[in-house]
Predict the 3D structure of the following.
Amino acid sequence: MEIKKVNLKEQTYNLIKDRILSRHYKLGESLKISRLSEELNISNTPIRESLSYLESEGLVEFLGGKYSVINLGAKEILQLNHAVLVNILAALDIVVAEDKIEDLIELEKISLENQKELKSKDATINFEFIKTYVEFNRNIVLAADNKFLLKTFDNLFSILILATSYNKKVYMDIHYNLHLEIYNALLEKDYEKIRTTLKELFNKDETSFEL
């Protein structure tokens, strides 16, 4: 595959990132710069720079002088889910306290429409659906308009997409319906229902993941 020289660094970064998130490269898989250079038909420098940036995002590890995809285990995914849930619940408290529900409803309405469209095209889970699924949860943090909560969530955004793809029970119908429950609870201002459903989405056990 040949990449246009315009914005080569950015294109290289996006391509490698998409391949990690779509599980083209597996958890713990070695990412040799020479192999990627041959595979993508570009020089070593933009690949090395991209891998370094992906390391800062948590998707790539650099150990013993070698890059590899992060090797997530069930324990790490559970810890990630807990951190994200705490972040979202804190944001929800702000949304409720500062009466920003209408803003959140508009954001989630668009997200649900995107999920519904993707769900109608394919009965199995896919990368694009997972992104919209994570974005739905991010909208709660976005609506809170707290830059520190949003920065924390965004620092975990990519790794959350990757971790979600290894959940055995990520079925589009199930997760769309849970998000629909949250949306309806927003309309009804049933905030306890929202909290309960969010906990259902994120509280897993170590048998929940296909690693």
Remarks:
- The mean pLDDT is 88.
